[in-house]
Write a structure and sequence with these properties.
This protein is α/β, with parallel strands linked by helices and about 475 residues long. Helix content is about 55%, strand content about 10%. It has a 5-stranded parallel beta sheet with strand order 3-2-1-4-5, sandwiched between helices. The protein has a two-stranded antiparallel sheet with strand order 6-7. It has a two-stranded parallel sheet with strand order 8-9. The protein is flat, with a radius of gyration of 26 Å. The two termini are about 30 Å apart.
Amino acid sequence: MQKQLSFVALDVVVAAVGIELTALVVRLWVHPAAEIGFGGTTITALGGLLTAVVGAYLTGLDDPARLPDRSAVILRGMAVGVLTSVVMLVVSHALWLQGLGRILLVATGLVVGSAIVGWRLIYARFLQRGPRIPVVVVGDGSAERRFAEALRSLHHTRYAVVGLLHDEEPSGYRRPAVSWPGEAAWPVPTTQLPVLGELARADEILPDRGVAHVIVLDTAPMSDERIAVLSRLQARGIRVCTAGTVWMNGARRLPPDLVDARWLLAAFEHMDRPMVRELKRLVDIGVGAAAMAVFLAMLPVLYPLVRLGSRGPFLYSQPRVGLRGRVFHIYKIRTMAQQANDAPQRWTQVGDARITRVGRVLRFLRIDEMPQLYNVLRGDMSLVGPRPEQPTIVSRLSERIAFFDYRHLIKPGITGWAQINQGYVSTTEDWALRLSYDLYYVERHSLAMDLDIILRTIFVMAAGIGSR
């Protein structure tokens, strides 16, 4: 969150400079008498500035993990520039019933978009070629090597794993083995990291190598000897971190290979936040009631479209698993043929033939989910939380994916952390990845995080990204 705020602050600066610089150039070489920029058309300039900053945020340009994808950064940055020009055009017409001029609008969009893209490309280059943070991992087993390989894939963290420290595990100790399928699991190592020596000699080995961090796997045993060595390292200025914290801060999802009962007990120890829960409920009621009013106003248009699209009811309900495993009925606008809704429960596939033509549009815009606002007002659901699933699917996934039921520790939501970070889910492997996002939200949810998710969901709805 701190890094994202830094991105926002820098966007404010570069966008403001871009808008004012463009206005200055236009005044000097095109329209000398024009009163434009923050000193002239102040409200229009502020509207453009706000659009640029919010647009960069909603398009994901404030996520350091996405910076290595240069083409995506350029495309999204240019889209922000175009949107900035459009908003400035609309505001100027609304206030003065005349535009600012095509040259100024086009130039402003190009300059603002280029500035937002430019500093990010420079920063991405710094992340790739700049100085790295040397770290070592305690242990040289399979789990430690897989974690080191996974950490190397998080380029934006600037961590460089220089090696491993060997440490014998206590006799009779059995490391918990929990395997998650598919992309959620950590990769098999492709390179052989060196073992730098024994952990007991770490305070002699590490200072000469410039190591800044020592990372310990959360599932590793913590003997008195290991604690003593790590304490000495910390006293010498070498930061000691757990792999779970490092991974969650970098990947923003749960570390799959670290999840066992002991880890979950420690991670979720402070999950119950009464103040957050009560404020979250107030937000659900207030925003839910306002959004329900919008939905009711749309009914005269939606109802005939759905009924004419195919035979069957306008709404349908299905059982879903909610808070603490309680089953409730969810309400949705029917987007499939009637026979499909009556069929046995199964996942919806990409391009599913059961979806009607009208239904595809409603799903694209996520309007089919709006009746769930009734569930929010009733208290079955929240605006933000893990998406509720059907009982038979929950039963099946609980047998195949460890700790799946932990996603029911909080109320399900209309949108969630997984929905803005992952696309279509149609396999067990996809669900394992989704669970890693859901449990991250369960452990770290807050009002600020909910606001972030709601804002990004609005953008996803407008852009049609991740529609089911």
